[in-house]
Amino acid sequence: LRPDLMKPYPSRNLNQNQRIFNYRLSRARRVVENAFGILANRFRVFRTTIGLDPDKVVAIVFATLCLHNFLRQQRSDAYIPPGYVDSEDANHQLVSGTWRSEGALQSVSANRARNPSVEAKKQRDVLVQYFVSPAGRISWQDNMV
């Protein structure tokens, strides 16, 4: 847990607001997984660690994102066919996209800090309050937890 990297609350003895936070965080993670899953399946350079200088990695990322955006605009159904990305059904239940079965990403070992900073905990609490505020709430989020 860092101010710029959120983790869900541990799943024991959560209050309603913490359960909502965990749910909303999982939805955001799914968006990131879809985006990266598409890129990794279309551009195999993303399937493993890129052993280049950071400046070159940035150039590769930008180039593939430009190609991705171009292909989405020009050949959307051929590039990302229906059902390719994760979606939700009418009851907001996850329907896994076919990209998940097209090729495995290599596992990268995580750096697991066990003691989150006070600043990171405060940031998570700010997000909890936002997700239950009138500005940040989703009408059906209480039904999902």
UniProtKB/TrEMBL annotation:
Keywords: Metal-binding. Its cofactor is a divalent metal cation. GO terms for molecular function: metal ion binding. InterPro entries: HARBI1_dom. This is DDE Tnp4 domain-containing protein. Pfam families: DDE_Tnp_4 (PF13359). The keyword Metal-binding applies. Residues 5-69 form the DDE Tnp4 domain. It comes from the Eukaryota.
